[in-house]
Structure to design on (194 residues):
């Protein structure tokens, strides 16, 4: 091979290696990465994009990881909270579900917009939760941030600020019907297109 051909092959090889690296996704690192909430447009989007929809009891924080990252008001902490599953509405039967959230310590004032992006550890209680699996980890995150969390108060769901009213004021016995009806609408639309 001539010197000119070798010089032409080298940049091509570098380009191939660079492009190959760009397509490799990095696994989530609880010691460094942050979970930033993204809002969804509709309640149907929330149902369709959730991997797991459950009624569960959140039971404190089992682990917390300082990410080594910070903002001008505090440091970012990743919190792991075990969920005691009561009912599965979408997804496979789960017994060992762990919620991972990112929050800021010390807590920002309630009106701070960072609270919408990084909700932090969730208060103990029973919730209707819409969850997405975090690839490469045993953890789930709230789908849509606060949109994926509906506390059960006096036996009825409550839509927090930014939550969908479609999931407000539901008794646990009514949740399955709402979820299945929404899934049915998506399913019939997909069938009619095919």
């Amino acid at each position: 091979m001539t010197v000119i051909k070798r010089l032409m092959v080298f940049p091509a090889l570098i380009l191939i290696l660079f492009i190959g690296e760009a397509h490799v996704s990095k696994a989530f690192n609880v010691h460094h990465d942050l979970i930033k909430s993204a809002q969804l447009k509709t309640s149907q989007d929330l149902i369709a994009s959730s991997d797991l929809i459950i009624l569960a009891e959140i039971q404190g924080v089992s682990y917390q990881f300082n990410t080594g990252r910070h903002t001008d008001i505090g440091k970012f902490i990743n919190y792991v909270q075990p969920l005691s599953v009561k009912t599965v509405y979408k997804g496979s039967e789960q017994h060992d579900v762990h919620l991972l959230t990112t929050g800021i310590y010390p807590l920002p004032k309630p009106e701070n917009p960072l609270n919408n992006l990084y909700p932090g550890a969730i208060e103990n209680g029973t919730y209707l939760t819409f969850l997405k699996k975090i690839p490469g980890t045993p953890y789930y995150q709230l789908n849509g941030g606060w949109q994926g969390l509906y506390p059960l108060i006096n036996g009825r769901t409550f839509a927090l600020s930014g939550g969908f009213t479609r999931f407000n004021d539901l008794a646990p016995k009514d949740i399955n019907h709402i979820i299945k009806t929404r899934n049915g609408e998506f399913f019939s639309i997909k069938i009619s297109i095919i």
Observations:
- The first helix runs from residue 3 to 22.
- The mean pLDDT is 84.
- The radius of gyration is 21 Å.
